[in-house]
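=== Structure Prediction Worksheet ===
Name of assembly: unnamed complex
Input type: mixed (protein and possibly other molecules)
Chain count: two
Listed entries:
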Amino acid sequence: MNKTNLMALGLLSLSATLTSSAVFAGGNDDPLLTKVMLDQFEKGVDPQDPTQFSAQAWLGYDLNKLWLKTEGEYSNSDKQDLEIQALYSTAIAPYWDVQFGIKTHIKPTPNRNWAVIGVQGLAPYFFDIDAALFIGEQSRTAMRLSAEYELLITQKLILTPEVEVNLFGKDDAELGIGSGLSDVSAGLRLRYEIVREFAPYIGVDWRQKLGNTADYARSEGEDTQETQFVIGFRAWF
Amino acid sequence: MKSQYMIKPMIQTTNSELNNSRRQFVFGASAMLALMSIPFPKNAIANVLSQSLSQLSGKVFDLSIDYKMVNFTGKSARATVVNQLLPAPLLRWKEGETVTLRVKNNLDHDSSIHWHGIILPTEMDGVPGFSFDGIKPGETFEYQFTVQQSGTYWYHSHSGYQEQTGLFGAIVIDPATPDPVIYDRDYVIMLSDWSDEAPENIYAKLKKQADYYNYRERTVMDFFSDVNKNGLANTWNARSLWNNARMSDRDISDVTGSTYTYLMNGNPPQQGWQGLFEQGEKVRLRFINSSAMTIFDVRIPGLKMSVVASDGQNIQPVSVDEFRIGVAETYDVVIEPEVDNAYCIFAQSIDRTGFTVGNLTSDASLHAPIPPMDPRPVLGHSDMGMDMSGMDHSKMDMGGGDMSGMDHSKMAMGGGDMSGMDHSKMAMDGGDMPSMDHSKMVMDGGEMSGMDHSKMAMGGGDMSGMDHSKMAMDAAKATVSGLGLAGFGSNNEIKHINTEFGPQVDMRADAPKSGLHDPGIGLRDHQQQFNRKVLTYGDIKGLHPTYDTRQPSREIQLHLTGNMNRYMWSVNGVKFMDAAPLEFEYGERLRITLVNDTMMTHPMHLHGMWSELETGDPDFIPRKHTVLVQPGSKISYLVTADAKGQWAYHCHLLFHMPGMFRKVVVK
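=== Predicted Assembly ===
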């Protein structure tokens, strides 16, 4: 996987060289750009609730990009979650990119590494879709599907429903993950875009553990369902 | 013939003086909207003389390109200017003379000046990389050529995004022979769009979020009000095509009034440019759209405008109330204002997110009210090129139906709109169609080549009374397939070639309509709604007979393509960097048919040669340098390849240009 990423980086820098040397009458059509998106950065209103974030960033051109995706949460030093993905993304259709690379799940320990192949894009009716298949060591497999929609109340007040489901191929007792459908979460966030790049929001987030994963949680004396009200902000640049 | 020029340059104030005064009249974008229906602030105008264009004339011109801080919005920002002026000085040339233009580049980047619409040798055209290296920092380039034409033109940088930051100016060329246009006074009206944002940032934002500047998207409230009006099922159906296509019917302009301040002769609307006239004068207004990204709709409430020239070329006068001017186009109009009256020259952006104004008056203390902007336009299915193909006849159930009252008389099919029309699934069994009257269907030029009626099932139908006899299909003009006659446009089939398929293209117009008689998005109902006659390309006929009366020997069909969501633009799905040049044979007469496979209106500009727009009269084909191609539409023009060398051919929307660009080589 590392090799693939090196190749991708090589390709990007090669095309950067070609681009910059081209004679151009108007301007550079496809400049090397970066975008960093802090999609969620929020704190539950209950003091027990964790602080969570999810962010993505890309570097690249119109059709080929390097992506970083990360998400995590922090409740206390014992209860943390952090994962990072590094992906190469290439367009396969007007609204769809195929992405492949690696994911490392750093917290909770022990950490798990996965190879990733996924699709990301805009489905008809303007659903933002991110679906990925993960293949890990010891023939672990997992899938994640998330969908997000934007409802414009006004041009600046935007309601965002989203759902995410996770599936695993086999039990991972150390991490308390069971095979099959492990958890489903849904959120509803209402943001106000002060400017396009910065929008504070309020929202509600609901998560339900399912199947074997729920059994693991119950045996640890944890709740299988959480609902929290959040405040946070979204930003990009 | 009387020809008297009375350009009276108004008192020139320096820009820094203006800037100080401007600060008092700074409004936010929302305050600007509130200004819409109130008159000019009279005292403000009295205190601040609006800036008129300063003029240079003669045969030798020294121009220097510099950076300069300007203030149009209350914030200062860096502009690119010529001789410290924005717009650059108005250059006045005389037809037949040889002009020398020494252009010094004081920027720290390469620069260039392109003489837009001027017929000249390729190495004088001023496009870097095309027989010219650009002007390096600190260098002076000397342009020299003989002026072979007259009329209204303009010049601008062809390097980077310098045009967006102010590097543009007007050119007026006095004719060698008496001017066929009679007027007593003329003014150049230069329209432009200014942003305090650096153009590179605007472009990057569009690549990151294509609707960044669109604050007119459909909301939940719009949905409910539509449901209220039209019912849930109809609303859902109307939305589903757009939702499936992942496109917005509110997507009119990429860059809008949310960042742009629109200028007339370098004046923001709060200040307004002012021009004076005297009793009984005929005033010629030379409109130039020197915007980077903004198409304007222009009118002068209370005055008819006689359009006498387009893109510098005289045309047979057309009396209109309103016209659309694409980026880089020019229109000359003659008006006859009444003394003791003031008139507002009102130019609103195509998406109605802003406007710029001028006050034309016989008395400097008289000010015309500024009209409100027209309703914001919403794209229709036809703007997706789905006029006919989206018009689904297959489900038309006419079994046994009585079609006697079916009136096709208002179907306007000028320009060959029926090639994609498929009636094959129309089931008309048993129908009685006795008085179906096609007699008023106007099908000039034999446009029915692709129309397939062969599978129309009319079993048992009685069509005895169906009268096609008056269908005006001039046999002489009708061609079965292939090239249509010069002046009438293309008959060819619309073909989407392989390169148009892929992630870089999000839409293909399968049944593009003709762009000739359509005034365009946002103007289509103005005749009915406001009783305003709006200029269409179909109204334009050259004043002089067609120069080259040969038939085209071949046709090039070019598709204007893009992916709005990724903010990518291309021709035939191929961006400039990957494209082979278009090759013209020296001396050949050819037709270019442009098919717009996007939802944007693209002003296409061919350098070095005329674009002779086929508006339906082969004897008086008008010559243009820039042609607007409407969304989901096609339009054709003829080109005589009479200029050897390498030429640029591109969309004049600045942020489309890098991709939607071709090199043309005439050998």
